[in-house]
Design a protein that fits this description.
alpha+beta, four-stranded antiparallel beta sheet, two-stranded antiparallel sheet, 2 helices, 22% helix
């Protein structure tokens, strides 16, 4: 299946949890060092209430895996970048969505 793209950097294959799309658009627009973001599968969780939070979890071969939490759901995000974890977390903190 071919991925549909928005701005050629946000790859959309699945739905995106409520409130996350705008944050990803701003993140990509303000950080050209991030090559792309690919949202993954959405799963329900009990502890995802309130505003969108994003936690960087593990490195991948071309960037980082992150978990976005909001509206009773969690969604994996695959972020393609040469940045290290501190730089990516700092970019998320500037947007007010970094999670401890």
């Amino acid at each position: 299946m071919r991925l549909r793209t928005a701005q050629d950097r946000l790859k959309i294959e699945h739905s995106i949890i409520e409130g996350l799309r705008h944050i990803l658009d701003v993140l990509l627009a303000s950080n050209p060092e991030i090559r792309s973001v690919i949202p993954g599968v959405i799963r329900p969780v009990r502890d995802a209430k309130g505003r969108v939070r994003i936690r960087i979890t593990v490195p991948t071969h071309n960037g980082w895996k992150a978990i976005a939490l909001s509206a009773g759901a969690r969604q994996e995000l695959f972020i393609s970048t040469a940045w290290g974890k501190p730089e990516l977390e700092a970019a998320l903190e500037r947007l007010g969505v970094a999670s401890d």
